[in-house]
Structure formats: C-alpha cells, structure tokens
C-alpha cells in the first residue's frame, strides 16, 4: 500500500492534532543543546552546503530579498539563539522572538543584549516569548513579516505550524523560510522516525500548499538547504 501524499512529501508520519513536541523539540529544552546550538548555527550551512556560507552571507541574502524596514513588526518563529531576531533588530524592526525552549531564549538574550526593550538601537527592539507556534494564541495579522530558520524541520505538526504563521502575517506581509527539503534518502528516513528525532523533511511544493493566500517570490538552494520567500496577498508591502 502506498503512503498518503502528505506523508510521501514530508516524511513525518507522527504529526498529531494537538501541539505535542517532537523528540527534536524536546531536546531543545536541554541547556546543553542551547549551549552548543550557536556553534552549529554558525557552521551548519557550510557543512550542509559544501561551500562557505556563514551567518554574514545568510543575513545578506535575507536582507537583500526581504528588505526589512525600520518600524516594521516581525515574528522570529523558533528563534533558537536569536540569529534572525538580531538581524531584524539591527535593521530597526520591532521583533517578537518566540521559542518553546527557555534555555534557547536565555542564550539568545545573552547574545543580543543591545536590543533589549530598555536599550533600543535605531528603533530596533526584541521582545522574547516562550511560545509553541503551532498554537500561539496571538492575534490575527499581527506581523509585517515572519522568519523561520529550520524550525519547520523540527516542529511536530508542520502543516499546523505553517497555517498559524499565515494567520499571523498581515496582508502584504512576507514569510521567510529556511529548511532542509525532502530527499527521501536513508538518513532522512531514519531521522523522521519518532524515536530518533521525529524530524520532517518537506518538498517545496508541499510547503507552498500549506500557505493559502501566499505567493512564492523566491526559491533558492544552498547545498542541502532551501530558502524561500512568500508574500501574503493583500496591500502592497512598504519598502
């Protein structure tokens, strides 16, 4: 018997109706994971892509395509150690940096101390929140833009996660995704099993179908990693 279409394309058979946590998400609750994650984040695209691709290059790619503007409101969904939150704050944006891991948020705040609410720089500010963004409880259309740096691979229910991000994005706003796409290789199959991480690996066509009312404007491959930019249909984006 063949697998249902969504399981073929995401390689995650363990998505649940409620916001449960995958093994990968649970591991992010450990302080040791937060301690080591910053090193991995700085080197991961170079290791996965087979070419030098550090954080400065990633920040430049994001800034050139998304062009965040001062005073815009952004959500960094699954901020981990705060990379995209910091990029946005330095562009003058107000950022809600959300993660379900307290240790990750603590490490992120340590790495981005110049953008605390009491010490704004060029209008940029980061507010930190412990949230499961499969069911955030935040108001509709709260943000001009949303960034997702690899959280899509770790979340327990990726379809629900993406629908929630669309709900939170204002008409005319944008969504930036970075994730490992589906290859159906043996390592991905292994890591997608619940006991060994419960990771999800997504075909870009499947991702696009989970974003109703959004149009993809950019799709880039950097080795094993995909970057995508979407705009939510509505009023024209400023900038």
Automatic annotation (TrEMBL):
Sequence ranges assigned to domain Methyltransferase type in this UniProt record: 75-176
Gene3D superfamilies (alphabetical): Vaccinia Virus protein VP39
Pfam families given in the database record: Methyltransf_11
GO molecular function, one term: S-adenosylmethionine-dependent methyltransferase activity
Keyword Transcription regulation attributed: no
InterPro entries in UniProt: Methyltransf_11, Methyltransf_Superfamily, SAM-dependent_MTases_sf
Key words, A-Z: Methyltransferase, Transferase, Ubiquinone
GO BP annotations listed: methylation
Keyword Transferase included in the entry's annotation: yes
Protein name: 3-demethylubiquinone-9 3-methyltransferase
Biological source species: Deinococcus puniceus
């Amino acid at each position: 018997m063949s697998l249902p279409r969504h399981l073929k394309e995401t390689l995650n058979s363990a998505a649940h109706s409620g916001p449960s946590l995958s093994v990968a998400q649970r591991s992010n609750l450990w302080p040791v994971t937060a301690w080591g994650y910053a090193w991995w984040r700085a080197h991961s695209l170079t290791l996965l892509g087979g070419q030098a691709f550090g954080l400065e290059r990633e920040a430049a790619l994001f800034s050139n395509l998304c062009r965040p503007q001062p005073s815009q409101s952004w959500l960094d969904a699954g901020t981990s150690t705060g990379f995209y939150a910091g990029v946005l704050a330095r562009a003058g944006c107000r950022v809600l940096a959300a993660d379900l891991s307290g240790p990750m948020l603590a490490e992120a705040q340590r790495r981005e101390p110049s953008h605390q609410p009491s010490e704004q720089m060029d209008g940029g500010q980061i507010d930190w929140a412990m949230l499961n963004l499969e069911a955030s409880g935040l108001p509709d259309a709260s943000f001009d833009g949303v960034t997702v740096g690899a959280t899509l691979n770790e979340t327990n229910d990726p379809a629900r996660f993406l629908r929630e991000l669309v709900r939170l994005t204002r008409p005319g706003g944008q969504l930036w995704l970075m994730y490992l796409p589906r290859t159906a290789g043996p390592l991905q199959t292994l890591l997608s099993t619940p006991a060994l991480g419960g990771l999800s690996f997504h075909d870009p066509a499947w991702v696009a179908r989970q974003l109703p009312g959004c149009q993809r404007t950019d799709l880039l491959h950097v080795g094993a990693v995909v970057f995508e930019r979407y705009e939510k249909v509505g009023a024209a984006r400023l900038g």
